[in-house]
Each structure stands twice: as C-alpha cells, then as structure tokens.
Amino acid sequence: MFNEESNIHAFVAAVLEVMDEQVGETFEVILVDDGSSDGTWNQIQQIASTDKRIRGLALSRNFGHQAALFAGLHHAAGRAVISMDGDLQHPPSLIPAMLAAWRGGYDIVVTRRTDDRSTTAFKRWTSRTFYRCFSLVTGVAMSPGSSDFRLVDSKVLDSMLQMQDTDLFLRGLVSWLGFQTTTLPYQAAERFSGTSKYNLRRMLRFAAGAMVSFSMLPLRLGIWAGFFTSLLALAEIAYIIVQYFRGETVPGWASLMTVMSMMFAILFVLLGIIGAYVGKIYEILKGRPRFVIGRRVGFGPHDFVAASPEVGRPHIEPPMPPGST
C-alpha cells in the first residue's frame, strides 16, 4: 500500500469474502504501508483493531514496491503465501484457483496479465519489450504480462529470503529459483480508486536494476564493443599507411575527429556500465537492510522479524478465523 487510503477497506473486504466463503483455511492478511503520506496507516490500524486476522506493517519511509513486498514476505507465517497489490487490479477471486494448484503439487503459482482494449498500446509494447530483453540478456525465461501476484510455498519463500540482491526483482528471482511452477492467466481489473504510482521514470529505473542484478551481459557487450572499435582503428591505420605510400594523404581533421569522438563515446559508455556494477558492489558492502519497519499492528510481542537477509521468517501459527476451534 502506498497512498491507498481509499482502497484499503474495499481490498480487505474482497479478500476476506473470498477466504471465508471459498477457501475456509486458517489465514492472515498482512498490509504493508510503504511510507504513505496520506491516511493509509490510520486505515490499516482501524481495520486491524476489528479483526485479529489483519496485521499491518508501516515502513519508516518509502522504500519502493519490491522492498515493501519483501517486508511482508519476511513477516508471513503461512504454509503458502500470496502477494498482491492493494489497488484491486489483482483479483482476489483468483485466490482459490491458486490454492488449488498449490494443493495439486505446484510450489509456485505465478499469474500472467492478459491485455484487453483498456490496456494502452504503449504499456503492451513496453511490457513485451522488457520481458523479451530480460529473458535474452539474463537467460531467465519470463513471459510478457508477468506480475507480483503469485503464490509461493513456504520452502520457496525460505529460499527467497536468503537472497541478498540489492536491486530486488522478485519476478525474476522466483523464476530463477526454479521449483515446480504453473501459470494462471487473469484479467486486470480497473483500479478501485486513485492513480498508479509507477511513472515512466520508476519503470525505467526498475528495468535497469533488474537487468544489472541478473546479468553480466552488459559488461561482456562492452568487451566486444572494445574489440570492434579496435578493428576499426586498425583498418583506419592500414588505410592511412596505404594512402601515405600512394602519396595521396591530405591533411584534415574530419576523419580524425570522427574516430576520436566514436572512441570516446564508447569509452564513456563502458565506464558507465562498469560504474553501475561497482555501485552495486558498494551497496552490498554497506550491508544496509532492504527496509526498516517503523510501526506494527496486529503482531504479537515476539513476532518481529529483522530485515537482515540471514534472519528467517517467523514460524508462528496465523490467527484462526472467528468461530474456529
């Protein structure tokens, strides 16, 4: 949840209706406030005070979508854990089918968004381009329309929590882990209210971080670019020598400046790529947590989990639904 105060009650009501009427299992709902500036946390506190199955986490500031999801995963205690966004675009009605696939033996149940007429051409094109490039560059196969609406078994979640990637890209991480996986399609609903918090700048940063986190190909491309420019330079030298012996050399600066500009441009690109990877090394060496919990509600006094990668998730029994024994 990030500035989603107008969506919280509708989201919780939709999830509880599905879980109570169609699932009938013991469960908990963890709502993560990713440093909202509106009344999101107040709404979470209000709902948690009326239902012991609702728990809330408030990050100390906005750490980003992936870090907020990871905070919820750290505190989840179920045998199966489902992550989803709080704007009701991920339909709670799909939860029974996800649980059925899990009971059928699948460790991971991922979902794939099917585009309709309401999906803009730009969004369809950017999604397909990103996932094709990601699969090609990293070797981790992902299909267009992948989302963070998924179910993972507890053993998969334990493996996820051991990962120490600085740029979290949970969709790629889940695919990289392997395990028995199935995919369910879904039709994304309209937002219940409000607007999307993912602008073009955030999407580009998210895509770049995912690529760097999962692949060394940019560095390898830099090496091949260096070989290619070296061949061009040798060809230019050979041409100059031939023209010199033929007496056809003409003093000029155009070709010289062209070659120098090209070489410096490639050099700066390579330095930028190397700098990106060095920056990731720096982030890892600092050892800062991916998120910081500011406030909690609905958790017991011993249910707190630190954000450090080496600390596992809690092994506690989720609260029973009303009337259960």
Write the layout of secondary structure elements.
Layout: H1 8-23, E1 29-33, H2 40-48, E2 54-59, H3 65-75, E3 80-83, H4 95-103, E4 108-114, H5 121-138, E5 146-153, H6 154-161, H7 170-177, E6 181-187, H8 200-214, H9 217-245, H10 254-286, E7 293-297
Parallel strand pairs: 1-2, 4-6
Antiparallel strand pairs: 2-7, 3-5, 4-5
Describe this structure in words.
The chain has helices spanning 8-23, 40-48, 65-75, 95-103, 121-138, 154-161, 170-177, 200-214, 217-245, 254-286, and strands at residues 29-33, 54-59, 80-83, 108-114, 146-153, 181-187, 293-297. Helix 2 (40-48) links the parallel strand 1 and strand 2. The chain contains 10 helices and 7 strands. Strands 3-5-4-6 form a 4-stranded mixed sheet, sandwiched between helices. By secondary structure, it is of the alpha/beta class. The relative contact order is 0.16. 48% of the residues lie in helices and 13% in strands. The model is unreliable at 304-311 (pLDDT under 50).
